[in-house]
């Protein structure tokens, strides 16, 4: 094993261990600051447009936190240079977060037990000292590969609608933006993917990219290893089950609730209704693109989307929210108690109490933050409660969908949403650092289940 | 010890143990059915009024579940006979539930450990076999004493506004209704206590009665014993701390949010503003009376009240919601995890994981039910999301406040609210039966804390 890798690992570990919340916060703040300066350059905006400092901070924060809420229309307001700045922020923010959260989840936890390390080594099939470098390389390799494939496929589709230069440019932008679950688009007039409402290719490609970006690196790696190992980690099983459940249940409920809504699905044929339902079921978790106007949806659907945004993506991904595993642990804990079971069991694995406590922590912390932000925004913004709740949840869960409030936000409202995007992005991760898992006791009924929360 | 008490105890225990959820459900359903039949009698309503079957079920369910949501105006719609029927339903439902929930909490749990029994005996200072009879007597004695005092004080106040007969009648009705946190009133036009907006006597008396009714028998008994024992049970400390915190924080936030609202507090002098803020801080948990129109409040205040209703009252009381202790356990668990502590400690007592799991169960179960009900009501009712969320929370938490939706509910909406009141009333209790506490392991750091959830 080369010595320099060893040294790098120890240095990185001690640097990150020093104060990861501070490191992360400063890191993200610096990226946003750089983005603000670049976006404030006159060449970043189209002629006749002027970006205020607050809107520059908002846009840079939204891109870096891969949220996708926009106060100005990305496509028509910014120049091509501005678009590349935004895309760079998305790439650095999204990929950076994916790498960091995967690293934290796997290597950086305080009190990581030997047993956990062994499980991780087995799962990632790599040596623990060299692990961190390999892991980062692997995450970046996966992300770039998927982005390249996505961009190529979008480009091929866009060639039918525009010249080759623009098709490539749009292909790359949307491939990167949608894989990173950033929610930014270039189509103008805040209309996201609505031009492709009835296009199965764009819809399905977007659904797959959002899925690959939000499912988390750990699951991707596990799926790649599956043909060889013929089994999945508990973590992957939980993530995939919850993702499938929420996707299907969400799509069915959206289809039912919007079927006769003349402002959304009613004018479409059944196939297109189904396509739109699927897209709007996965997009809140946390892709942020849409093909119909969410503000025209029925209240029940909007509330469902708020719920889907709150649950969000999976650990080690670019997405936000409380995460699928947190959701699963809370539900399974509830069912176990109702049935009077002493152990909380997921896929024949017993969950130790620290996992359950973590799940509570993320959920209650997120709820408290969301409730507080919604209350404050209710005071600063003169809009319906649902509009405000939707916006706050979207910002906190880095989802990026909006009922149209974002461009109309007051300055105070913009400041609150910026803070919410920032905290929402860093929150669970920095929380989790403090909440590292402890070695379980050796009192086995089922074998202990290892699962990452948040 | 007399033999018949022994036999009674064993019989009662085996009857309740057989299937308490079924017993409770059937018991409440029978009381409601009796109420419906009585309310449908022509002598129950004033001349010229006709009560539909659905409205009779709604009213009987609301009274029996001590919720206080009303589809027809209690004061002007029903005759004096109808008022006594409603009051009887409140007394039987409220006191019955208080007795049952106290009994369940103390004696009826599956796997109740010897240590827990000893703690309970110490706390209640009574023998465990005779306990159940004494306990029921004690609960009823406390309730009737407080109701008598409350009724007398209301009567004395109402003598200034009406003739003696009506003052006594109104005094008894409101003394019983408000202690039972039932939220029913006789003042007409759905205006609750708004005639007494600026009356310190009625406001403070109502606040005290709501507090005594919602704090739970266990805490009342503990407080009565306090001068002798000079210490409080953990349960009482938690309940009183959370109650005080929510009362003060709620009042301050309401005062701030509504201070300049010309439809609520703005026209009042500071003393009256303060009085109204206090009443509307405690009333959601879960008294259900009001002196200003909650539908005129700002959205932030309404959302705060939704939160207060959701938390609700304390175990072993007439009130609903997830309960103060559940709220406390969730918050303390979150803080412990964020601080990286291994144990969850409340007042120097460690909480075993089954308590924490129960708290999750109640919270997630309640949230899930509330979200589902809100979604369905969003479809059936053509009202703003806040109005619907407020109504659903109020019904589920048996709070009884309304933004005015109740009398305008569609038939489907009424049916949903009836089910929600019923499930909300029985839910946590029947859940808890299945979720009886288990003896803790003997691995002490702090002494184990005993606290009732839900
Ligand atoms: K997003
Ligand atoms: K009530």
Automatic annotation (TrEMBL), chains A, B:
The lineage of its organism: Bacteria, Bacillati, Bacillota, Bacilli, Bacillales. It is found in: Cell membrane. GO terms for molecular function: potassium:chloride symporter activity. Coiled coil: none annotated. Keywords: Cell membrane, Ion transport, Membrane, Potassium, Potassium transport, Transmembrane, Transmembrane helix, Transport. It holds the Pfam family TrkH. It comes from the Bacteria. This is Trk family potassium uptake protein. The keyword Zinc does not apply. It is a multi-pass membrane protein. The chain crosses the membrane at residues 23-41, 53-72, 84-107, 201-226, 238-256, 320-338, 359-379, 415-435. PANTHER family: KTR SYSTEM POTASSIUM UPTAKE PROTEIN B (PTHR32024:SF1), TRK SYSTEM POTASSIUM UPTAKE PROTEIN TRKG-RELATED (PTHR32024). It comes from Cohnella lubricantis. InterPro entries: Cat_transpt, RhesusRHD, TrkH.
């Amino acid at each position: 094993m080369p010595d320099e890798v060893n040294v790098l690992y120890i240095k990185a570990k001690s640097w990150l261990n020093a104060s990861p919340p501070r490191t992360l916060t400063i890191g993200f703040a610096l990226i946003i600051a750089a983005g603000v300066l670049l976006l404030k350059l006159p060449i970043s905006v189209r002629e006749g447009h002027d970006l205020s400092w607050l809107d520059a901070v908002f846009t840079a924060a939204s891109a870096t936190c891969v949220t996708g809420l926009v106060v100005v229309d990305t496509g028509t307001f910014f120049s091509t240079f501005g678009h590349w700045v935004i895309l760079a922020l998305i790439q650095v923010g999204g990929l950076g977060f994916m790498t960091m959260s995967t690293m934290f989840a796997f290597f950086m936890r305080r009190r990581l037990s030997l047993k956990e390390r062994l499980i991780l080594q087995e799962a990632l099939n790599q040596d623990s000292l060299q692990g961190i470098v390999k892991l980062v390389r692997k995450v970046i390799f996966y992300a770039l590969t998927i982005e390249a494939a996505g961009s190529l496929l979008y480009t091929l589709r866009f060639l039918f609608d525009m010249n080759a230069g623009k098709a490539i440019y749009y292909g790359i932008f949307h491939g990167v933006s949608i894989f990173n679950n950033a929610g930014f688009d270039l189509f103008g007039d805040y209309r996201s993917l609505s031009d492709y409402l009835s296009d199965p290719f764009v819809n399905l490609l977007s659904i797959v990219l959002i899925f690959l970006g939000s499912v988390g690196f750990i699951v991707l790696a596990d799926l790649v290893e599956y043909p060889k190992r013929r089994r999945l980690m508990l973590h992957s099983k939980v993530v995939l089950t919850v993702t499938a459940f929420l996707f299907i249940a969400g799509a069915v409920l959206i289809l039912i609730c919007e079927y006769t809504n003349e402002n959304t699905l009613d004018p479409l044929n059944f196939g297109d209704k189904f396509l739109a339902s699927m897209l709007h079921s996965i997009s809140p978790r946390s892709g942020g693109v849409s093909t119909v106007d969410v503000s025209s949806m029925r209240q029940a659907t909007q509330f469902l989307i708020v719920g889907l945004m709150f649950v969000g993506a999976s650990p080690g991904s670019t997405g936000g929210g409380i995460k699928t595993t947190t959701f699963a642990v809370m539900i399974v804990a509830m069912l176990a108690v109702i049935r009077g079971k002493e152990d909380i069991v997921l896929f024949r694995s017993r969950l130790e109490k620290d996992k359950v406590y973590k799940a509570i922590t993320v959920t209650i912390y997120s709820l408290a933050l969301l409730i507080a932000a919604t209350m404050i925004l209710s005071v600063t913004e003169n809009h319906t409660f649902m509009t405000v709740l939707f916006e706050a949840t979207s910002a906190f869960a880095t989802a990026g969908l909006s009922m149209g409030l974002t461009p109309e936000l007051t300055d105070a409202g913009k400041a609150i949403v910026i803070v919410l995007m920032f905290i929402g992005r860093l929150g669970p991760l920095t929380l989790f650092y403090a909440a590292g898992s402890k070695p379980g006791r050796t009192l086995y009924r089922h074998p202990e289940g290892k699962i990452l929360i948040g």
